[in-house]
User: Fold these one by one.
Assistant:
Number 1:
Amino acid sequence: MQELINRAKELLADGTVARVLGWKAGDLPYNPEPAYFETEEDLKDFVYNGFCGANLSKYMIEASKLEGKTMVCLKPCDTYSFNQLIKEHRVDREKAYIVGVGCKGKLDIERIRKQGVKGIERIEGAEITDDAETLKIQTIYGEKTIPYADAMLERCHVCKGKDHMIFDEQIGESKETKDAERFVEVERIEAMSPEEKFAYFRSELSKCIRCNACRNACPACSCRKCVFDSNKFDSSQKANVDSFEEKMFHIIRAFHVAGRCTDCGECSRVCPQGIPLHLFNRKFIKDIDELYGEYQAGADTDSTAPLTDYTFEDAEPSIVGKRG
Amino acid sequence: MYKIAKENLSALFQLIAENRELYLPVRTAGQTNFAAWNADAEVDLDTLKTVKSAKDAFFPQSESLYTVKKEGKKMAIEPESLKELDFVVFGMKACDVKGLVVLDKVFLSDPIDTFYAARRDHGTVVAMACHEPEETCFCKVFGVDAAEPASDVAVWTVGEDLYWKALTEKGETLTEAVKELLTEDGAGEAAVEAEKENIHKIVEKLPYMNLSLEGWNGDALSEKFDSPIWEELYKPCLACGTCTFVCPTCQCYDIKDYTAGNSVSRYRCWDSCMYSDFTMMAHGNNRTSQMQRFRQRFMHKLVYYPANNDGMYSCVGCGRCVEKCPQALNIVKVVKAFQNQGGEK
């Protein structure tokens, strides 16, 4: 982390960048927040640890409009989102000085709480430099130890790899965290009967409170004005109505980001109700892989994407076709 | 003081639900929220904070107000009926009970919100003292005692038993109705006192409990409103509605029409000051930037509401926003940021 801070100071001092986009230490052991730093003095609050899960690439849409360059800290998975945003002309590459930061898996406070941890006072082992495989958590109800992997976000278990897809320089070591196959959960759902699938998604999606956190965190959801924020047409808009969330909202969103979603996992990370929203997107990714050949959105900035490209050999999947 | 063994709780819920609706914390797909009880419901009284507060029981996130139907050349208006059935909300916490006091001041002041008033009339609140408060709690800052919920019935958990004490007439009525499952316990007072003391000791250790609200009051309007700090604070905000929808005191709503061919139903749904069309009017929107909308939330809780309600804040320190904000922003950080700025200048 100190190396990162030192480099940020240098880049600010020599005028390469006008500001730094990273994370600021929180007031609890696990709640750093995304923040801009403009001076050396500001950087005293800079932090980078296991709880810095937020994907900062989307903030670069706004930062691209500012005067001067922004040094942005991107984890390996965040760089896919950044590439995709370049491809969609939503960020300005010239306005970003990308520091690819190392990653040893990001932590999920909800998952920690689910293991009965409450009254947290201190957490040891969340630093990027910590070699420990466990988190030591001091609480007012006693000390708890949790294996690091058991406290990680789902996305880190199916990590796409620790290489940065785009960067100006890299700082910090990474550690492999992948210990599960990306499509296993999708396959489990595919194997369900239509009734089981419907029941599963209903029970998950009826928890939705229409807070729009998934949409607002999503780097692929970068429309200037979302159709669901329009008061000019009769969508359920901001009303929380189970039938709409179960059958429309999340499905429409998944279709809209299909072929562009990099599987960064922010939708599921930010959901206050713990809905595994990434599964919709991952199903599309799996289908695209199978129908059009393997494709990873955000792996580059110039390839043609399967859903925006046409060839005579294209598959034409259709439920109607199948039913004859 | 009455007592009931935890193992008899399902019998208690069944008995309550015989003649009333019963809402309590239920675990569905891994999350605990208030929901209607049924025999198959997985009741979860161990989770301290439900994701959403119990606000829905009195002020649902979405509700129909009336329907206009076309019948030939005439229009028929069918108002939605008011709550007529008695119901019980079991398992709220002291902070959420205080949240109802905040809502009362808004909805029960003239003009009275009849939908809300009917639910308040028919609802009985059984609240539990917080056996193990958490680091995100700061109810004490707002004068709430986690050990003494000011509900119709207060309940304390001691070992394998729940102690039960009616505090209001409604509470007495409910107690009468379920008396067959309660046992009187003379020694209960001592057990409950010990539990209260224990809760108070834990509360003292919590990191946010001594948060100072100095300088936040109804008179601080211009000073707080014009502060340059908001420009820094709002930046990481995603403009999602999580904080407002999990909050027990956020009370803003929108009224809209849903057109369904031959009928139109007029409904209301919670609004969020984080949303781009918040308070949108015919002339346009008076808060056009996210900074202004972000500022609104905290000004409302800590300045506007106290200005209109004898200094009472409209935050109760439940800490749900602290737990749930995707980017880890919250009211505590806002208060602290103003404090720090005060110290430096």
Note: The mean pLDDT of chain B is 95.
Number 2:
Amino acid sequence: MTDVAGLDIGSRSIEAVVVRGGEVVSMRRAPTTFDPLGQVRALFPDGPPARLAVTGYGRELALARYPHARTVTEIKAHAMGAARLFPEAATLLDIGGQDTKAVSLLPGGKVGRFEMNDRCAAGTGKFLEYTATAFGLTVDAFAALALAGNDPPPISSMCTVFAETEATTLMARGVAQADIALGLHKAIVSRTVAMLSRVGLRAPLVFVGGVAKNPCAVRLVAEAVGFAPLVPAQPDMTGALGAALWLAQTPA
Amino acid sequence: MTDAAHAAMWERLDLDIEAHDALLAVLGKFYGDIYLSQQGRLKGAEYLDFVLSEVHGLRIKEIQDAKAAGKKVVGTFCVFVPEELTLAAGALQVGLCAGAKAGTEKAETLVPRGTCDLIKSFVGFKLARLCPYTESCDLVVGETTCDGKKKAYEAFGAHVNMHVMEVPQCKGPCDVDLFRAELARYKDALEALTGNAVTAASLAEATRRVNAKRRALQRLAKLRAADPAPISGRDALLVNQISFYDDPDRFTAKVNELCDEMEARIARGEGVASKGTPRLLLAGCPMAVPNWKLPYLIESSGAVIVGEESCIGERNTRDLTDETPADLEAMLDALAARYMKIDCACFTPNDERLTHIAAMARELKADGVVHYGLLFCQPYAHEAMKVGKAMEAAGLPYLAIETDYGMEDAGQLKTRVEAFVETLS
């Protein structure tokens, strides 16, 4: 049986999933850096399988290097991946490095309505990374700090730069760091909930993308929608998995 | 025309030569990437390539020659300005540059930052001295189609000879009367400008010429119902864009030739994309030259555009002016009736637009509708939501895009458009 690889070249990280006969045989991950194609070569030292599907921001870039590859959008790839992991999934939320997507799923992982943030990285993983850095913390430590908060101030700015200014002002006013951290997490979650409602949120909701690894974000999504989202063990692999599954079922 | 002759003409028009050269270089590159890279174009597209390559050259020369022969030039931004009257007064009518980012910083000294790119563009082109059309105008006619334009014309009027027509916001009998009075006022302004009287004979002849242009564009629009699509959406948009500034009679003849070629191509079962390619109707705000961003993104995402429900498209060509009245007053009534049918988002209510979009999608066999809203254009932003509901009711897949003349959102837009196209196949 031939291997089929799915590659998700995102703004922050690259994931590679190889499937054989419909079963996952490997999952790998590398940061994107400024040399994404170099990182792809590092993920596949012997070259990627002949059957290669690429999704994510770098999909066109990869096509120039691997002309035999096929491309698929992140939206479709995530939908297919989510449907494989949770066949009952009705709605999908993906918060990645610079994009947030809400997708209403039709049977078989087909895409119904979808929403995506417009242009800047407001309300995405990058927002949390940036604000964590402003706190001098890793993203994991920042999430842990936020989980300790209990009285989050409202953060009105969705701009990554202005949110930091707002956080600094709140600190100067003596608001607890944990509460500010929680407020910043809430800011992005409330924005994604608005996107979910525009596509017609239905349970079960699958939450994927790098930010789904953040326990505070998962808790806040659950609180905002009123039920716990389904989160895969490796939520950032969903796009690469979906791309591989899509190609595997596409005639060569 | 030689490069030196071009340069001398632009000098006489007092353009900022260096910035204008840079603008033309960008336009040329953009045109090459978006237009010349297309496969299977019509032979008649050579006309489009030529007109566009000489958009600031030969056409401006013709306009300058007409001016030297005593003709007046009227610049417009909107399909509510009746070309019939302009031509009847013996003047030339041209659409002014409003489709690219130009002189933005200067424009923001006259209009607020939160103004749409179309308005900022025409103000910027003027203040930065980059548009030879604007510089050739003896009169610029504005219209009160939105608050942004209405207020921008107040400031713009300090820089050009300005006439503003009031376009009503409703379509009751008193509104038609108001627009009818505005037509008479525009006629008087033209007569004062040109020294020519608008007569029943001159208006009848002008109406015939403008209707002929509309008929040619209607013919082209209808042929796009064929599968495979006989012309790309980009080329069809360009035809509509050129309709605003090329000589109307030459344009009509060229479009009819293009249609002949399209008919032959359809008879052979050929097209620009393979049969079964997802077909999209583009609806919403006008796309002035060189605003080709969204059509390009759509047609490089595996779909073909089969219609433009836009002022630079169907809204400009759908209705003909009644040619039967014989006296001038009845002709002006006919003009008022024709122009008040336009389904611009500036009207309330504007439900006929929803019916029109659904009908166009059906007639052109569109698989889905993409709505283009220009950022900060409030009337169309509201209607984007209404159109969405109407398309849902009609069972038509729908994608609403809001964007501007910048390129920084191209990656995200491409993903959204591609994902939408994926759902159609």
Note: The CA atoms of residues 235 and 345 of chain B lie 25 Å apart.
